[in-house]
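Archive transcription. Copying these from loose printouts into the bound notebook so they stop getting lost. Printout 1 of 2:
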Amino acid sequence: MHTLIKGVLEEILEAEVIIEYPKDREHGHYATPIAFNLAKVFKKSPLVIAEELALKISTHEKTQGFFDRVVACKGYINFTLSLDFLERFTQKALELKEQFGSQIKSERSQKQFGSQVKSEHSQK
């Protein structure tokens, strides 16, 4: 799932993204410190950049139904996956059984898998 999220974010932001786990789990499932690197380039504070990027990510069509929350916090962007997406991801894993890991090994396959899970979500 880590690589799936990384791929979606890199596609939206058109930059390499580092995905981490937040120190405080209440902040979400994942986080990225990308705003700190971009702050030097754009000569803005990481907090301002994180807020701008969080808005861009949360309103992007590729993330609809994917994230429940995208929040800027002290220069980080924190992500909480939607319950519906997690249920669909789990359901797909159960359907694929042993093939699940091999199905999403490559980055390309992970993007396809994520799109498949999301498209099943939008059909409901």
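Printout 2 of 2:
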Amino acid sequence: MGVLADVLSQPETAGFVHVARSDDPVRRYLTRDPEPRQPAALVCLPADTVSQGDNPVEAIYSVPNAHRDTAAAAFVASEDPADENDSGSDEINRTVATREPETPPGTHVVRLLADQLGDAAGTGTLRVPSHIPHDAAVRLQRAGYDISSTAAVTEARASKTSAERECLRAVQQAGAHGIAHATDRLAAATTDDGRLHVDGEPLSATQLERDIATAVAETGVTPETVAVRAPATNPSGPLPAGEGIVIAVRPRGPHGYYGHLTRTVAVDSDGGWDRRAHIAAKAGLTTARTHCQPGTSVATVAAEVRAELTAYGFPPRTELAKVGATTRRPTPARRQLFMASDSHQSRLPVRARTSHLNRERRSLSPFALPIPTTADSDSARSSKSPTTAGNSSSIIPSR
């Protein structure tokens, strides 16, 4: 929250206000609180306008009554290792204020400002993000405040600190642990009439999802989304051999950072197309990593990947490459190629590694999993590339 120091020091500034309707990355960034899903607000006041307290900045987190304890643990008591950008955290007086669920956060903010500012209430300028809800802005203006948007928080969130990258790396490693557990299970499977069995029992997508979730949870990370899909297969039915099995994991770490890892694994594949696609995908990923440099546009990276795939005999019929980490929900109708980290590759013997490409003979996967990603859930590949997520495929040799 130290990023707001310059904002609060501007002339005529009465304070900074942020109002979030529900799950909001800016609120998570400022409060270190992954919850609540209900509307919440944050009020920050400079030292010379605060009517009480010795600290230079007064920060008040407005939440519903039921969320008081968890908000206090995250906002007041928690020491977030990713908070190195908050250089003035020791000089911020953090408190949690509760309201009835039916009370709009904008109304509660007006009351908090009146309590804190005393005779100065209703005067001066409130700095707010440009996307503050309209009803909250109207309430603040009716209370007498001028409203001025600031991009300070957006600019601060444009790059990750080393501590934030460590949080991202840790949660991504937890997802990789879950994927590795799944591939171990698949490697131990036997094939019976084209279907996979483990210890004589059919292995279903539902069972594999449970196993992955357990493995991720053992690392201290929440397995928020785990999905296993295979072509023309009921989730409760046995998984097929020789077809692509798409495994997607979206873990959430204790500090609210998300990971996103997708792998496509084939057991007892006949090779052929898979091997050719692996070579093309590997070349495409290498090209993407080479061009992912500061200042390079996403469109440029995607174009380079498409050109590389075309050179290997996979011309783009739709959108063959998807580069970036801020898309909230991929379009299911498109085949996607995500950048993958070498540190997150399968531990199994690999003969091919492919992605969702348009297949000549059969579809590797008839759908793309709609696993969402956010700017705060970017998967870290390295300190130089903190915002990548991966999708690759492995071929597990016949037993």
